[in-house]
Amino acid sequence: MTLTNRMACLSMALVLSLAAVAGEARARSGPYVDLVDFPYTEANWDRFYDLQDHLNREFHDLCGDTYCEGEFSNHVVLQFRCSVNAPSGRVASCVLVIAAGNLEVEPTTGEVVPDSRTWACVAPLAPDTSVEALHAALGRPDALTRPLPGTHRSMHDALFECLN
User: Fold this and answer.
1) Would you give the DSSP letter of residue 148?
2) pTM above 0.85, yes or no
3) Cis bond before residue 124 (omega within 30° of 0)
4) Helix (H) or strand (E) holding 94
5) Environment class of 159 (CB within 10 Å of its CB; exposed 0-12, middle 13-18, buried 19+)
6) What's the rounded Cα separation, in Å, for the pair 159 and 102?
């Protein structure tokens, strides 16, 4: 490969890299990003999904003895999401979506009749909660029952209010 060809390849690679960065910047039209995408697109992917799996296990362990008794007996965590102010690294909001349902068979028609519900439960976050503080608080054992950073409230408190 000649020097001219190498220079052309390097120039093309630089242009493509800059175009990708510019495209990502255009896609982000405001200062807020999903926690998965902080500090850049998919940077927090594994850590975030490990956290969501941990919260799912914590919820499952608590659910039957607390807010999951009553009309529905099969509550599950559907999704956990947080928005982050990218420039400051502060968490703006987090929501845990819970679903539950029952299926009944209509005896005269044989139709299976669903009765389902979802709840979007907002985490009681302090205004200046950092991404690191959130991960540390929700990644620990008993994450749902211990107060969130800068508050006297836990996810358990929020879930109890939300689901009842």
Assistant:
1) P
2) no
3) no
4) strand 90-105
5) buried
6) 20
